[in-house]
Amino acid sequence: MRRLHRCYEKLTDECTVTDASSLEEVQRTTASSALRVIEQVQRILDSSPSDEAVIGTRDIGHLRTLISIVFKWGTEPLLAAVMPLWPLKSSKSRSRFQDISSAGNTYSQLATMASKLLSLVFPCGMEGKVAETAITTTLIHRHLVDLLKPCVTLGWLPGSIATPATPVQDNIRPLVMRLLHILPSAQIIVALGGLLSWSPLPLHVHRACTTLLSRQLLRPDGVRGLCAAIFGEEKSAEDETSLDKLQHVAKILIAIPAGIKPEEYFTKVIPRILELLTANVPASYRRASAFAISRMLSSDGSYPHAALASSILLPMLHRPLLEYTSDDTTTELAPSRALDTLVALVSNTDPSPELMTMLLSPVASALYSLKYHLDRTKTSDPTLKESVGGLLSTWGRIVSAEHGIDTFWRIVDGEGGFWETDLEGNIKRVEKPNKLPSLSMLTPVDREKLDELDINANILDLYPDPAHFVQFLQSIDRNDIAAELFVRLLEAYRQSKTRSEQDPTRSLLLLQLVLQMQTKLSGDATSGFLKRPSHILAFIKHTLESLDADKDKPSERLDVPDEQLETLRIVPSMNEEDDDAADSDDEHEGANTVSPDDEMLETTVNLLLSILEANEDLSARTDPILNDIFVLLEPLSMTGSDAIRPLAREARVVMTARLASTSGASTSSKSSKKGDAEDAQETYQKALKLLQDPIMPVRAHGLLLLRQLVSPGGGKRTTGVDARAPTIDRALLPAILSIFLQCVQDDDSYLYLNALQGLAAMVDSFGKEVLRGLLNDYSGKLDGLQTSTMTQQDLDVRIRVGEALGLVIKRCGEALGIYVDMLVPVLFSMVRSAYLPTTLRTSALSLLGDCVHTYALAMLPYVPDLTSALLDLLQVEGVVGDTVPEKAGKELPAKTEQQLAEGRKKPEHARRPKPAPSMDSLPTSTNSKFPPLRRAALHFLALLIRTTTQHRAKITLGYIASTDQDGIVRVMAREAVEELGELERAL
Predict the structure, then answer these.
(1) Under a CB-based contact definition with an 8 Å cutoff, are residues 429 and 324 in contact?
(2) Residue 881: what pLDDT?
(3) Which helix (H) or strand (E) holds 310?
(4) What is the dihedral of CA 223, 228, 231, 233, to 10 degrees?
(5) Which of 2, 249, 394, 969 is the most buried (most CB within 10 A)?
(6) Computed from CA positions of residues 215, 218, 220, 226, in that sequence, does the dihedral angle turn out positive or negative?
(7) What are phi and psi for residue 656, nearest 5 degrees?
(8) Is it the case that residue 946 has pLDDT exceeding 60?
(9) Cα separation of 151 and 173, whole Å?
(10) Which of 357, 339, 492, 311 minimizes the C-alpha distance to 421?
């Protein structure tokens, strides 16, 4: 009390407080006195022209104490006294104030005190400058929340709840708005946040603070100020990020203030959020910004303005990477800035598949193009290269298969554009690259380097570079995408071969991509896309069916030059005369040519072999579609081109072995036998596994094991009475026979000879059952209609089966009599069929000759018919030779000499005589005048006669004629010897 009275004496004013006054009155009076003292000191400090401090540290401490007293004993009790006049945020009911006159007095004192406090900051009013004193600094930095409490409460009082005793203080609001405008956003947001945590909080104060806080976010530094208010401005805030704080920041940023259109709000706030991602700020700020963006782009329906926010935010990120970079492009729209923002956003948010798809899928093709540019530019920034690669890797591992395939296909279609890097390392997208094509200049030095080029070198500058594209596809390890993309590439390549207007470089690109994927993605570590064979097998079947259907249609493009292919021609074509000269020796239509269909077939069959190699358990038993593919491969193995036939045969052998392997495995699992049968089964499985190997010598060894298995005594460890009978299960014979018959068609001599030996061994071991099958393959389906369409390949297969039959016949020896009734009628019927190719009839005659040579006695029932038929054939089909030419010394007619002279003037290829038709040049011809048929008939007759005129017959008949006891026998033996001699003399 004494201090208070002394203060009033110094102020020359009368103190109204006595010893009978209450504590509240004493405190309120003390606060008023302190405010008066502060006002006088402020006027003195503000009027001092000196820049030096006119008060000491102790005096500043006293002033700070007085300011604290003003708020502690002045404004706070007054606010608490008038608080029941208004609705509170926590309660809808309004507390009734008992003494209306007292409330009006209290409200008036509070308004006066608030106005005086604001005058300390703005001594010259609204238009004046801000006081730059220690008092002002203390008010702003230490008591801003305390200052805003009465000012906002009175200045934003709604007229609906104001009364004559408690009017709205309109003079306070402009000063508060000016104060909020000049202070940093972070400080204002902290103060308003502290004001919102005040309890009890009047409802109109809460609304006012929310509005003021939203306006702070719209300021240029509003978003950064929000983060600074929540996380702090020190670098130590980097490790203090919690989910609650992130959610609090996101909740404030995505809340649209009242009275502002959503589009206007997002247009102002989103650029500042994106700017914060690349600014030099604590990591917590970037995490908060990324978290807020993820909430704005939420696709789960939790945010009603997600579509609007996406339409504003995503173009800011994508447009710089999708549009050409002009010279007047601002920094905010530069591709480098957009790329840095994307990297920061992806690095500081959860890797949600939906979010990554939304952010990166639209620009994935551009990012890949940029990655390709950076990878092949030696001076590229390593950090930039790593950033682009990281974005693409993140996208590739998270994106759904559907979006991933669509994006990769856009890359295959050439989407992505071209990129350049300037001297400062900035990237920009350009319409065309400013460099010459790789083959535009070919110097001698370049020509020397061509021999040293890598097999994966992109010498035609295709985009995407097949090797680079497949390497990136391999790096993301998405087998589901690779499998679907592989099938789509194959289908596109197949379609490109059927379109005449298709760009040839496009077909080349598709083929290179297929080959690269088949080569690099078929290893043990990354063979997953081949481990998903269902779609690829369906494509293989569809391709084989479509190509087979195309072959049945007449060609509509005979001798029509392809204008697109002409653009790739680098060697001039020969003239017509040179063409005639060069092609004179090649009379076969389509000889040594490779059609587009053959290329597609070769790729398809190679793909089938790769799938079978990658999936050891894949067979027709597990995937029935292989049965259809097996049937479709049969005509290719017979009538395909030179490149297709061996591949088709290999695929059929592998599929047959695979099916037999699974069948054998199921059979052996049900059996409990031991010993020899078990060893034979193990050998059988081993042979089938070797037959599926892509290396030819390994397959040949598997065929050798099968031959040994079906040979007499094969698979046995002991000998006995039945040592010749193999122990292989007879249920496996059809599969083994099919394998041998398919390998007989192989061009490799080792496989072919082993197959022949195997067929002979099977007949030796299993008799008529196997021989009947061989005869059926040799002579079956030879009616007139099918014979007229027989191809050279089909004929070659039958001839090779005939060689196997010849081997079987020679190995039979005197046991040929068991099979002669099965062999001779069939072979004799083939010899008499004039509609069969002469080559096949000649082969049948040779087999009949082998029968006579092996065991003539078994042929006795058929000798008369055979002899008569062959003599008739020689008589009918004989060809009379030309007359003997005149002697060389005789003069030629003048006309002939003139013709010879004219012939010498003609080109050499025109003078060359046309070769006569022969069985070698026309193997499928039915011309029975070819000499090999008559030679085979004469060979048969000679063998027949030779066997009947053997020296052994003479000795035996002579001995009987001399020693037999029966006279009639001796006479008949002598007559037989005489007739045999006459027959020899006649021949």
Answers:
(1) yes
(2) 61
(3) helix 306-322
(4) 140
(5) 249
(6) positive
(7) -65, -45
(8) yes
(9) 7
(10) 339
Which own/partner contact pairs does 456-464 have at CB distance under 8 Å and 24+ positions apart?
456/516, 460/505, 460/508, 461/437, 462/505, 462/508, 462/509, 462/512, 463/369, 463/372, 463/414, 463/416, 463/509, 464/368, 464/372, 464/411, 464/412, 464/414, 464/416, 464/509, 464/513
As beta bridge partners, residue 418 has 430
What is the structure's pLDDT at 529?
Answer: 65
One-letter identity of residue 554:
P
- Give φ, ψ of 336 to 5 degrees: -60, -40
**CATH for 671-766, among 2.60.120.480, 3.50.50.60, 1.25.10.10, 3.40.50.1100?**
1.25.10.10
- What contacts 730, CB < 8 A, 6 or more positions away? 766
**At 248, is the secondary structure helix, strand, or coil?**
helix
Q: What is the pLDDT of residues 182-194, one digit of tens each?
A: 999 889 999 998 8
- Paired tokens of 782: 């030879």
Q: What is the pLDDT of residue 410?
A: 94
**CA 793 to CA 746: how far, in whole Å?**
11
Residue 439, pLDDT > 70, answer no
Cis, peptide link before residue 362, omega less than 30° from 0: no
Distance of CA 510 to the CA centre of its chain: 13
Between CA 713 and CA 719 the distance in angstroms is 8
DSSP category for residue 857? G
Tell which wins on pLDDT, 439 or 595. Answer: 595
Question: And the tokens for 214?
Answer: 């939203």
Reduce the DSSP state of residue 237 to 3 states and report it.
helix
Omega before 200 within 30 of 0, i.e. cis: yes
Lowest mean pLDDT among 545-549, 582-586, 919-923: 582-586
DSSP secondary structure letter of residue 170: T
User: Is 458-550+596-659 CATH 1.20.144?
Assistant: no
Distance CA 152, CA 810 (A): 119
Question: Which residues, 6+ apart, have CB-to-CB distance to 360 below 8 Å?
Answer: 342, 346, 367, 391, 392, 394, 395, 399
Cβ pair 268, 256 in contact under 8 A: no
Cα–Cα distance for residue pair 663/298, rounded to 1 Å: 55
What sections of 532-624 are H helices per DSSP? 533-552, 563-566, 576-582, 596-614
- Residue 347, exposed/middle/buried by CB under 10 A (0-12, 13-18, 19+)? middle
Q: Using CA atoms, how far apart are residues 17 and 29, in angstroms rounded to an integer? A: 7
**692/687 Cα distance (integer angstroms):** 9
Relative orientation angle of helices 203-217 and 243-254, to the nearest 10 degrees: 90
Show the DSSP H helices in 218-305 as ranges. Answer: 222-231, 243-254, 262-278, 283-296
**pLDDT of the residue at 885:** 47
Q: Which of 71-85, 418-432, 618-632 has the highest mean pLDDT?
A: 71-85
pLDDT digits (tens, 9 = 90+) for 647-706: 888 888 888 887 777 665 555 444 444 455 667 778 888 887 888 777 878 888 888 888
pLDDT by residue (tens digit) across 125-176?
A: 888 888 888 899 999 999 999 999 999 999 999 988 888 888 989 899 999 9
Which DSSP helix (H) or strand (E) runs through 429?
Answer: strand 427-430
Q: How far is CA 494 from the centre of its chain?
A: 18
Report, as an integer, the average pLDDT of 228-254: 78
Rounded percentage of the chain residues whose pLDDT exceeds 70: 77
Length of the chain, in residues: 987
Structure tokens at 514: 């297929």
Number of Cα atoms under 13 Å in the Cβ half of residue 324? 7
| CA-wise closest residue to 657 among 705, 625, 697 | 705
